[in-house]
Amino acid sequence: MTAVTPETGRLSRGLLFAAALCAGITVANIYLAQPIIGPVAATFGASPQTAGIVVTTGMLGYSAGLLFVIPLGDSLDRRKMVGALSALTALLLAGSALAPSLPVLAVLAGLAAVTTVVPQILIPLVVQLADPAQRGTAMSWVQAGLITGIMGARVVSGQLAGLMGWRSVFAVGAALTLIVGLWTVRVLPSDGQRDPVKYWSLLRSLPGYLRREPGLRRACLRQAGAFAAFNTIWTTLALVLTAPPHGFTVAQAGLVGLLGLLSAALAPVAGGLVDRRGPLLVGAIGLAVLALATIIMIPGTGSLTALLIGSAAVPIGLQVGQAANQNAALSVDPAAGGRLNTIFMLSSFLAGALGSAAGSFAYGAYGWPGVCVTALIFLAVGALGIRRVR
């Protein structure tokens, strides 16, 4: 059977807006639990450390979704997938809002993270629909939605929990996911009948792409270095802000994270630059911005100005780099966008987890300057991917 796929150049503004909005709403679900661990612990009579299992299962669930769900986008109708995943995520979040115990909440939140990989289904579809000369711009609009959802989730979650309790966070997330997900389905084109590929064949093909495609490997390496460096800094930033001499409250330190929203505004600019100058140059610029921001932040223990400037610039460097690196990865074979995106996102996510762990260790052992040096080491590793593929 011959596959019937959406035609290149058929990406409308309405569809792009829907994809960006859906990406922002659904990706926020992964981060909803982070600011409400204290209230969750109090409800179930557990310590905050124990209640942190909800965040852990969410991260593990998202990793499983990246590996086991996204490749299906190369075989199934992605329109139907977005609808089914949105509905299932909403159901699991609603269950989380009603969870009678901490173990039940952890399981439901973890399963919701597995199914909330909708943005990574949408991105390859947007790339396929966009005119080849505008793929970077199109992808960057969806990434702008992603970064807005990631940065905004923590603030909105904390505010909702303060007003109506932590259960309202999951309830509102369920409602928004269902409404926006189903609306997005209305504007997405159908993939029609596609060539059937066995599920295990999809998974077995992943190492082959990584082995055969040097452009994919280098894009993954650049992004892995960038995301590891970002998480090294972002995981420990609140610690230095709440410590003397700055003495921020936890809430005030969280608001500093809103500076990251500047990167969402600049995402389309980065995407346009990718279309004009190519992903390799823009990927290198992203790493350079991250390195400069990290160097500026080194004296942050005694300089709030250095921390604030860096807090605004670090997400910009990450966003610029991702706009380029993901474009390079998916351009290897747009027809296999789901599998290529699995490789790209999973390598990035695992590197980010490594960066978080390394940042926490470096802060405890060497203080904030040690965190910055660790981030620079990760960036140096990422820079090894700046080489033109021949």
Task: Name its key features.
390 residues; Growth Hormone, Chain: A; mainly alpha; globular; disordered N terminus; 2 domains
Helix and strand succession? HHHHHHHHHHHHHHHHH
Low-confidence stretches: 1-5
Give the fraction of residues assigned to helices. Answer: over 70%
CATH homologous superfamily identity of the largest domain: MFS general substrate transporter like domains
Keywords: Membrane, Transmembrane, Transmembrane helix
Subcellular location: Cell membrane
InterPro entries: MFS (IPR011701), MFS_dom (IPR020846), MFS_trans_sf (IPR036259)
GO molecular function: transmembrane transporter activity
Description:
- The relative contact order is 0.15.
- The chain is globular, with a radius of gyration of 20 Å.
- The model is unreliable at 1-5 (pLDDT under 50).
- Helix 4 runs parallel beside helix 6, helix 5 (78-97) packs antiparallel against helix 7 and helix 8 runs antiparallel to helix 9 (166-187).
- The protein is mostly helical.
- The longest helix has 46 residues, at 337-382.
- It folds into two domains: 1-204, MFS general substrate transporter like domains (Growth Hormone, Chain: A), CATH 1.20.1250.20; 205-390, MFS general substrate transporter like domains (Growth Hormone, Chain: A).
- It is built from 17 helices and no strands.
Summarize this structure briefly:
This protein has 390 residues and is mostly helical. The protein has helices at residues 13-28, 37-44, 48-51, 53-68, 78-97, 102-115, 118-129, 135-164, 166-187, 199-204, 206-212, 214-242, 250-256, 261-277, 279-297, 304-330, 337-382. 77% of the residues lie in helices and 0% in strands.
